[in-house]
Amino acid sequence: MKMVLGLGTNIGDRLRNLNDALESLARLPNTRIINKSFIYETEPYGYKAQDDFLNMAVEIETDFSPETVLGAALGIEAALGRVRLFKNGPRCIDIDVLLAENYTANTPNLCVPHPEILNRSFVLQPLMDLFPTGCAYGFSFAAAYAAMPMTDIRRYKSE
After folding, report:
1. Which uninterrupted H or E stretch holds 20?
2. pLDDT, tens only, 109-122
3. What is the pTM of this model?
4. Which one of 14, 20, 82, 120 is the catalytic residue?
5. Is 94 labeled as catalytic in the residue annotation?
6. I need a labelling partner for 52 at 20 to 30 A (CA). Which of 8, 46, 60, 158 fits?
7. In this structure, how many other beta carbons lie within 10 angstroms of the beta carbon of residue 122?
């Protein structure tokens, strides 16, 4: 099954945090990263009194269900030191299941498509990198992307 995961970080060595998360995802059994977006720097969403974020999206192919991938993502977050103090607060890493091929869910633990995809530039821009048509697995985000003012997002230069 193919899925798109969103990654974000704003504590510590942000680029290393993303790379550590990518390495951990790639080590999951029967899972491979098949595409990566560019990395973007964005202002915080929600709670503003914190450092800017680095965000990206990755497309994976896995034998696992989205629920199992979510569990693995939460384990990776914990292993990398994530502590959840409050909603939209600072974090060393955040990994969200955004989309999954031929799959939807609306449970207390997992909503796919992610309910905030169409409202966040830091999700829409990386998605457009992965799916330039503005459609992924039958989920269209082209209109939201076209309407979104991309004034708060900058492509990150890692050099």
Report:
1. helix 14-26
2. 999 999 999 999 99
3. 0.93
4. 82
5. yes
6. 60
7. 22
